[in-house]
Amino acid sequence: MSLRFVLVATRHPGNIGATARAMKTMGLSELVLVAPETFPHADATARASGADDVLAKARVVATLAEAVADCGLVYGTSAHVRSRYYWPGLTPREAAPRLQAAAREGHAAVVFGTERIGLTNEELEGCHALIHIPTDPEFDSLNLAQAVQVIAYELRLALDLPPLRPARDVPLAPVAELEQLWAHFDAVLREVDFTDRNGGPHLLRRVKRILSRAELDQHEVNILRGILSAVQAKRRRAGSTP
Ligand code: SAH
Questions:
Q1: Ligand 1 center from residue 107 Cα (angstroms)
Q2: Which of 77, 87, 135, 151 to mutate to test the pocket of ligand 1 (most atoms within 8 A of CB)?
């Protein structure tokens, strides 16, 4: 239904314009800007050179959560290979058919970070997986709009591939529901004292990583939420009988 490109905290409006152009050449038009530093701006319009319609339609939102809440599949992008070990990693070529499949069934998004520092760890962890464009390891950071172009091109090529799999019966769970699932896990893990020794976030991060890799559908999220609620109910009953 839709394939969305999300730019987080872009500093240079020229990069927003160049992104719109890169997208439009590959037949993509849904651009969402999370807290851009300066937009709209003449530099954005100039660099869009003809993709003004994509810029005009661009939605500006305050948070990444808002930009992807309804998406069943969200891939972040990272200039560092290191991140691939930290979170499931894909090349643009691996990611493109999966994004196209998800976009046929619901909403899918690719998220790009801010020019100097990229996406924060928290932003990366809100994604199902990370796309890294293979580069020289000594010089791995592309210009933002050029990274957009490479990924948009692979998405274009993937349109010609046979569908990755039959359409799902049950849609992927939107990110907003996954966020509720993480919060529920957090609550139950605390209730049963299954936490990091130092109270840190590592354990929950591991749980999120496992479940993000699984690309859960709505029924699967309901099952996990049901299990967590059953644990809570049982504990409450146990607590009330001395
Ligand atoms: N030092 C930053 C570089 C940011 S470049 C970092 O650690 O990521 C700005 C954005 O361009 C990145 O957030 C990412 O969205 C995209 N980008 C740049 N190089 C990339 C690469 N090799 N693979 C995937 N995305 C890349």
A1: 23
A2: 77
pLDDT in tens, 186-239: 999 999 999 888 877 889 998 999 999 999 999 999 999 999 999 999 999 988
Instruction: State how beta strands 59-61 and 73-77 pair.
Output: unpaired
Residue pointed to by tokens 């209730």: 191
Specify the number of domains making up the chain. Answer: 2
> Which tens digits make up the pLDDT trace of 59-102?
999 999 999 999 999 999 999 876 555 788 999 999 999 999 99
Pair (79, 195) in one structural domain: no
- 192 and 135, same domain (yes or no): no
CA of 68 to the centre of ligand 1 (A): 19
Domain harbouring 94, CATH code: 3.40.1280.10
Pocket (CB within 6 angstroms of ligand 1): 77-80, 112-113, 115, 117-119, 131-133, 135, 140-142, 144, 147
Protein residue with least CA distance to atom 18, ligand 1: 142
CA nearest neighbour of 2 among 186, 171, 193: 171
The reply to whether 111 and 58 lie within a common domain is yes
Of 78, 88, 80, the closest CA to residue 138 belongs to 80
State whether 151 and 181 are in the same domain.
Answer: no
- Helix (H) or strand (E) segment spanning residue 66: helix 64-68
Structure tokens at 90: 């894909």
Structural domain containing residue 146? 2-158
Element (H, E) at 190: helix 175-191
In this structure, the answer to whether residues 18 and 125 fall within a common structural domain is yes
Q: Domain end: 158, 191, 206, which one?
A: 158
Q: What is the pLDDT at residue 82?
A: 63
Ligand 1 centroid–CA 130 distance in Å is 11
